[in-house]
From TrEMBL, chains A, B:
<feature type="domain" description="HTH lacI-type">
    <location>
        <begin position="10"/>
        <end position="64"/>
    </location>
</feature>
<dbReference type="InterPro" id="IPR046335">
    <property type="entry name" value="LacI/GalR-like_sensor"/>
</dbReference>
<dbReference type="InterPro" id="IPR010982">
    <property type="entry name" value="Lambda_DNA-bd_dom_sf"/>
</dbReference>
<dbReference type="Pfam" id="PF00356">
    <property type="entry name" value="LacI"/>
</dbReference>
<dbReference type="InterPro" id="IPR028082">
    <property type="entry name" value="Peripla_BP_I"/>
</dbReference>
<protein>
    <submittedName>
        <fullName>LacI family transcriptional regulator</fullName>
    </submittedName>
</protein>
<dbReference type="InterPro" id="IPR000843">
    <property type="entry name" value="HTH_LacI"/>
</dbReference>
<keyword id="KW-0805">Transcription regulation</keyword>
<dbReference type="Pfam" id="PF13377">
    <property type="entry name" value="Peripla_BP_3"/>
</dbReference>
<keyword id="KW-0238">DNA-binding</keyword>
<keyword id="KW-0804">Transcription</keyword>
<feature type="region of interest" description="Disordered">
    <location>
        <begin position="325"/>
        <end position="349"/>
    </location>
</feature>
Length: 349, 349
DNA sequence: AGCCGGATTACAAACGTTACAAGAGCGCGG
DNA sequence: CCGCGCTCTTGTAACGTTTGTAATCCGGCT
């Protein structure tokens, strides 16, 4: 009766034996306690405690119970943006007794493909993905094979999948409109070596805003790319600064693909002795915790990271619902104006 | 023969039928291809592609194949420290085809217990945990029941478990010695509402260093605690600043439990018009990406976050090894001196 | 005393996979 | 021409659950 922990795992069989009942009675205690006589139930419960019974999830899955595990495929789970996103997913899932299996692709389509395979094999409840591969056929296949897929920040077109997104074009527009209204006429857009969809759309938003302001994007917009060794994105950005400073005519503002890159940009500008925002303005993207505390405080585009994850998880959980229909949840970005942006310097044409 | 994706999942039975062989032959193609005649093998492989076969992990597990899933239980996966840690875990695991199931306890022992249960049920390959509950018996039980447990930053004593740790006492000492050598004689230690082991040990390290310097900890060390609504740790810290500033005699330096809190402290000091480091010095902990870019750049204690996770995952993977012996991997913290620390102001006694 | 119904509990099959033992087919030497 | 050994394939049982159906027990009724 005491807590003698049998070594190794014990299953219903051991419990049944210890309680002097059949395996199915043990099963009944677990899944339909009401049909078991109270006395028997107690005996079985005591036996479960005595042998240290832990139900075996995989076996249950085999019998059709859905897995409590949800896969999350992002570019990098250490990136604070995705870390917050995953946390939002986790919070929504935990209310349903589910958990996040967090995976990083490091922008490599091959890795993404491999992860999709692994997750399918695990028969997860579903997959939430920020796709790097623009081709959606694989995702559709996964979905058709029975693993629900929720897209994050991917243009869904008429795909038969659920999605959550924040409007990246609008985000780019916000940043550019702000700079234009301050008087900037030549703006650098700093991106990585490869453009995930969201970054490309932000650039597109910038382009649209410039055009709308009567500027010629071909002149007003300077494209800069970092050599993206994914982990050291801070220092890569610092190196990109040199390139921007060497451009003629010189941009008077930089829009960065995210706050982490902006961090590196500020560092690089500081090292180069260029003052922000007096000599050049800097805009970030994401509004991470530290953005407001940088020197100078970073003007950036806010994204509802936690809510985004939560919404994705909620859509995923709803897929179990028999009358579920695929749909899309939208969020709007918001500009946070802080100290890193100001009118361009006078001599800056 | 074409890629007609059957809706829903298909198993070996469907493959066998499509290839005109028995289920066991399909199984052989998968697990011991060499014993299958090349011609048959090709036929089966084509059939697998045709029906879109995906192996069913849980069923394999039932037959004894270990799960590729590893649980990671930390205080908060959105916290950059743990996000980096998880990334280290993921990197080591991915080399072995494994994945991280990332969970947050939010400092609640009850949640930790619940997660341990869920992970056990999933029959994960093992669990890597930064425990909040100081009582190790539950963890030992989990381990005895067949789920390997790796501790992170937990005093292992003679527990029969693997562990990785960075020496928190030494970290506290580093911070305090630095401040003492600058001339500080009254130092505030800012902690959360509850102390996880690591924070308590850092405080202990500070105390030891002060004593070693001939100071009386009862006078030289001021304990301050934040009301810890876990998510808004930045603003909670800002509020704690008021409390510190009101203390008499006034501390001339603050050691924060982590960089995130330091972020809030800098913000609060800024709002209160107190200059750092001229009027007060601030030391962080963790050395997160942004620490070097704060204003002023934050002096902090560096922890090898990624390596810590990697080491934990490697220990866990080694548990499968038949001649595995439980052991401990140690790391040393390192002080990063930057601009947020300086000698105390003159009048500050 | 035999039978019935309700309340409990037991049996058996199935989920998708693996591994072992056993079977089928075949060429070769005796 | 038979049987042997070889290669390749298949049948079968088992992993720990769940679930539908059958079996058992009981008291009460006729």
């Amino acid at each position: 009766m005491a807590d003698r922990a049998g070594l190794g795992r014990s299953g219903m069989r051991e419990v049944a034996q210890a309680a002097g009942v059949s395996v199915s009675t043990v099963a009944n205690v677990l899944s339909r306690p009401s049909i078991v006589a109270p006395q028997t139930r107690h005996r079985v419960e005591q036996a479960m405690a005595a042998v240290g019974y832990v139900p075996h999830g995989p076996a249950r899955q085999l019998r059709g119970v859905p897995s409590p595990i949800v896969g999350s495929i992002t570019l990098d789970l250490a990136n604070p943006f995705y870390a917050e996103l995953n946390r939002g997913i986790e919070d929504a899932l935990s209310e349903a007794g589910c958990m996040v299996l967090a995976c990083s692709t490091d922008l490599q389509p091959a890795k993404e493909k491999q992860l999709l395979g692994l997750l399918q094999e695990q028969a997860v409840r579903g997959i939430i993905i920020s796709p790097i591969d623009p081709d959606p056929t694989l995702l559709l296949q996964v979905s058709q094979r029975g693993t629900p897929v929720i897209l994050i920040d991917h243009p869904r077109r008429q795909l038969d999948l659920c999605a959550v997104a924040v409007d990246d074009v609008a985000g780019g527009e916000l940043a550019a409109e702000h700079l234009v209204s301050l008087g900037h006429r030549r703006i650098a857009f700093l991106a990585g070596a490869i453009d995930p969809g969201p970054v490309a759309r932000r650039r597109e938003g910038v382009r649209l805003a410039l055009t709308a302001a009567g500027l010629d994007p071909a002149r007003a917009l300077v494209d800069v790319r970092m050599s993206d060794h994914h982990r050291s994105s801070v220092s890569a950005a610092a190196r990109a600064v040199a390139q921007i400073l060497a451009t003629r005519p010189a941009p008077t503002a930089i829009i960065c693909l995210n706050d982490t890159a902006a961090l590196g940009v500020l560092e690089g500008l500081d090292a180069a002795g260029v003052r922000v925002p007096d000599e050049i303005s800097v805009v970030g993207y994401d509004d991470l915790h530290f953005a407001a505390r940088l020197s100078p405080a970073l003007t950036t585009v806010h994204q509802p990271k936690h809510q985004l994850g939560r919404a994705a998880a909620e859509l995923l959980l709803d897929e179990a619902n028999p009358d579920h229909t695929h749909r899309e949840t939208h969020f709007r970005p918001a500009l946070k104006v802080r100290a890193s942006t100001a009118p361009p310097p006078r001599r800056g044409r």
